[in-house]
Design brief:
Two copies of one chain form a homodimer. The first copy, chain A, is of the alpha+beta class. Chain A is built from 15 helices and 32 strands. In chain A, a hairpin with a 5-residue loop joins strand 23 and strand 24. In chain A, helix 2 runs antiparallel to helix 6. The first copy, chain A, starts with 13 loop residues before the first strand and ends with a helix.
């Protein structure tokens, strides 16, 4: 038995017996979600360390297919492929605007010599994105307006110091990204480039067979004018997408707004004098809602203290609202984090639980860098807040009269059911996986003199290039395709991404008629550009069918002695449950028709 | 002027005006060798840091072409592509046989958080090669003899803590490698796999248009049974290849031997009593050769002290010979280095310059781990050596009678003109660049129980897989192609590697007839699978010709108004000096013929 085809077929065809496809019957304990289980069970990847994976041959093939589709769409959009280094001298990042914000997610790289002394600052970092490199690389040489209007991209292994890697390739420490960067002469050109890239992204995700939504997104530490994320709806996602089917509005919850607070809402008039009252042991919004107080969360002002670049500031929300931390980015600090009780007490005069920003109650108001109130606090108008004295609160607090607000802004997390900002219909929320993200950066990086990314415009003036950046998680897209495309038996690959598109399952390898027909059909398919795997193993039919389903090859032909006796073979689509019998005489025509049905 | 083609052509064609090809007139000071200068001048790469480069679009294209040729040859040889992580948990290496020897050339990777404490041992390393990963990855699952007979490879960015990066991509800190690994059930199968890979290597380098030689090589820190290097002759190479045209013998000087010492050479008889004599101030072989001593280097025993895994040992050579440090690998130490004078003096009783291993003269012989004498010391027979007392030497030293030799071996560096070990003709030596290296590893890694790379053979016995490993420096191959293929005007790419194979230089862009013909010919070439760059820039013809020569596109068509008036265009091969005129009516036929002449 063994491998009867080796002598019949040219080596270019792939045989299961010569391949390495270690399928697993059981799902390894490390996998929590279906796509992660299937990556392991179908022999696509293996774990090397926490958040670090090796792609086995089938996985590497599928990954390369995704990358190649991406390359094609980038080329169609006029982008040029380049390859920047993964190990980057730290000074490039140190010269840029986000070293402090980003350094915790980057790995530092140093010499590993036994006696090497470790420097205080890293020599190199493994950059998770390359604005800090591409800006001086291109910007320093592209010095005329004629050099503008270029978009570059690379497909590269990237690294992120992920504290809690999860879900296989979804949140890994090492992953494959497509990252792109554009340089334009004018804001208008940059917007046109951004829109062209958005279209290329839509084409890419569509060709990958993904259902996705494009949403407005927060620009985060990347900065810039605006951005969109490409989201694959999935319960295992890390993000919440807020959307309205009526208006087409869609935004990451980090960015989403609602029409909850009417624009024309009048300021609430005071309802009485400020009144201090004892609330022994009460340190939560919920506790104040209970007897004997009975003050609803929507009647409370909630005060949260944060550090922005190591300066204390306060956020005021309705008691019933949650802070959306991403929205703190609008305040302009590079790094924000919750303040500790030890940092809060000397400034406010109390510990969390009794905090408030009523004028005159703050122990040392000069140490407070600002008080930022969410728009929805205007819905409270008059309410209750902490007295900055443990065990005491204040009532009849009037927003305009009493609170030391520096300015209002949008800081709360939108909730399902709130009115859409466009249609006023109730918003819906869906968990999703971010697979792509595009940013209109503007001049954030190019205005940095150290990067030299200025060009001379047609009038002879030095201008910073108007930039955009464009990311796709290639390995994450691969797993998202599995998360969306599987059933109880295994993966169901879309045609364009499948590691092999056609599997020919030979039930009686060694039988001349079966082998010959398999060869003829495999050759025919390969001439049409279809990748073919021939299952020539000496295994029981049940094992072969189970494995073919598990690894998810879109089209299967089954050739066996019993069928050939009746003059027929079987054809089955992985995505369909029925199998069809095809007379041997019509096998070639049927195969061609099947292949061509996928060409679109 | 500008870009008249944009509206005529489909976007898939590449136009210089839309491209990013920053050619340089002057060679940057950082470049020492021609290929490095041309990489920079032709706009293929830019330096990001010492030994760290970015590939610009033309460079990325050529690099990908080399990688793709390599992938094809690997697939033809039956190897399966996978992708292992670049960031590797350090414990994989720590479990293996060469952590101490290799850690100095590896970068260590740690979390870069501002407050992160650096561990004494690195969390991760950036592996320059992946035996430590692939052995457990494949070995732990491939558990039956039926799973053996597989070869895997990856094309991956690799990292090496290169102290003195040089020559651009030749000795870089970040580079692209193809690394492959084979697992076989028997030694015989492993040798057959090794030979198949050697053939694939020859096919690969031939398709890259390189003149190369395959030589016997030292197995170094990699270990294993035997190995071959693939060498590109070049004066800027790091290696010396010893070869004999007569016999076909070729070996890296690190490994090369000669027939200098006859096998049947009789031991020299003593010529007299040992005699101690004063040599004040004499501390070199050369000084002892001068008056008043006049003792030729070939009459002296030279004694060198080394540390092997921190134990002192001595090497004895003829005074006229040089040590080949790579040959110390045969002594079985993991790490060797020259001993310091401070380490030598207490054991030997003297500083370098007066050392010897004559019995009874060594201050503390118990501290000496061994004395290893080169075979050629037998040609000295009786000679002079240091007395282990500063300013004194010994004469009438008889090799057999007086020297405390533990064992003899091959430690000297072969020199040009010595007799070939096969033909006895004079050997020649040539500088060369190592572009590929294959090793028959045997069971060095698979016998390690921690890696679990044992399989059950047909008789039910657990056996370690017999392994091989196979490396190609993809980025180094790219630069070697330029080092071998250039002239005074720029690069001369071989057809298969060229970033574009055909350049159509349009001298009068915007002129309808010229644009139309350029489009027709470009489409014709692309249909034949040829990659085409159209130079549509509004530049003077001289600038366009100079740039085309500099970036080295193999075939150029020139279309201009003046030529078209005479009904002709120009065709020129980059590698040839003559240009030929082609009637417009015959242009398509001539282009097809030119393209097809390159197909082989």
């Amino acid at each position: 038995m063994g491998t009867p085809f080796v002598f019949l077929f040219p080596l270019i065809m792939d045989f299961w017996s010569k391949h390495y496809i270690p399928t697993l019957k059981e799902s390894p304990a490390e996998a929590e979600i279906e796509s992660h289980k299937l990556l392991l069970r179908a022999g696509l990847v293996r774990k090397i360390g926490s958040g670090i994976y090796a792609f086995l041959p089938l996985g590497a093939k599928a990954l390369e297919n995704v990358a190649d589709i991406c390359r094609e769409e980038m080329a169609k959009a006029g982008a040029l492929e380049l390859l920047m280094p993964a190990v980057v001298p730290a000074e490039y990042w140190q010269a840029g605007p986000r070293w402090n914000a980003a350094r915790e997610i980057m790995y530092q790289v140093n010499s590993a010599g036994e006696n090497a002394e470790l420097p205080d600052e890293p020599q190199f970092v493994l950059g998770p994105t390359h604005e800090e490199i591409v800006t001086p690389l291109i910007g320093s040489e592209a010095s005329s307006y004629r050099d503008m209007g270029k978009t570059f991209f690379q497909v590269q292994t990237k690294f992120r110091n992920e504290i809690r890697p999860r879900y296989g390739l979804m949140r890994a420490r090492e992953f494959v990204m497509k990252d792109g960067y554009s340089f334009d002469a004018t804001d208008e050109d940059a917007t046109a480039t951004y829109q062209r890239m958005a279209k290329a992204y839509e084409a890419f995700f569509s060709r990958c067979g993904l259902k996705f939504i494009s949403v407005e997104a927060d620009t985060g530490v990347m900065g810039g004018a605006f951005s969109h994320e490409f989201m694959v709806p999935a319960e295992v996602g890390d993000d919440d997408v807020v959307y309205c089917l009526e208006s087409g509005y869609a935004a990451n919850v980090e960015k989403a707004t609602s029409a909850l607070v009417p624009d024309d809402l009048a300021d609430a008039k005071p309802v009485g004098e400020l009144e201090r009252f004892a609330t022994p042991g009460v340190a939560t919004i919920a506790a104040l809602g209970e007897a004997p107080y009975g003050i609803g969360a929507e009647e409370q002002f909630k005060t949260l203290l944060y550090m922005g670049d190591e300066r204390l500031f306060a956020i005021v929300l309705r008691g019933c609202d949650d802070l959306e931390e991403a929205k703190l980015g609008a305040l302009g600090y590079q790094v924000t984090r919750p303040a500790t009780p030890e940092e809060i007490a000397p400034v406010m005069g109390a510990k969390p639980g009794s905090l408030g920003v009523v004028k005159g109650t703050i122990a040392d108001p000069t140490k407070l860098d600002g008080v930022f109130a969410d728009h929805a606090t205007r819905l409270v108008g008059n309410g209750v807040t902490g007295a900055n004295e443990d065990g005491f609160h204040l009532r009849n607090v009037n927003l305009s009269r009493d609170l030391a607000v520096t300015r209002f802004g949008d800081f709360r997390k939108v909730q399902a059911g709130e009115p859409c900002p466009r249609s006023s219909k109730p918003l819906e929320i869906q968990r999703a996986i971010e697979v792509g993200h595009i940013f209109k950066l503007g001049v954030k990086y190019s205005e940095n003199e150290e990067y030299g990314a200025k060009f001379v415009d047609a009038d002879g003036n030095r201008q910073p290039a108007v930039m955009g950046c464009y990311g796709i998680g290639i390995s994450r897209t691969l797993q998202s395709i599995i998360e969306q495309g599987h059933d109880g038996n295994g993966i169901v690959w879309p045609w364009a991404v499948a590691p092999y598109q056609l599997i020919i399952t030979v039930l009686d390898p060694g039988m001349e008629e079966a082998d010959g027909l398999a060869r003829k059909l495999a050759e025919l398919a390969e001439k049409e550009g279809v990748s073919v795997l021939v299952d020539d193993r000496a295994e029981r039919p049940g094992v072969k069918f189970k494995d073919a389903d598990l690894i998810g090859i879109p089209l299967r032909l089954t050739i066996g002695g019993r069928g050939l006796k009746n003059g027929e073979i079987e054809m089955k689509w992985r995505a369909e449950s029925e199998m069809s019998k095809v007379p041997v005489a019509e096998a070639e025509a049927a195969l061609l028709q099947a292949i061509r049905s996928q060409a679109g």
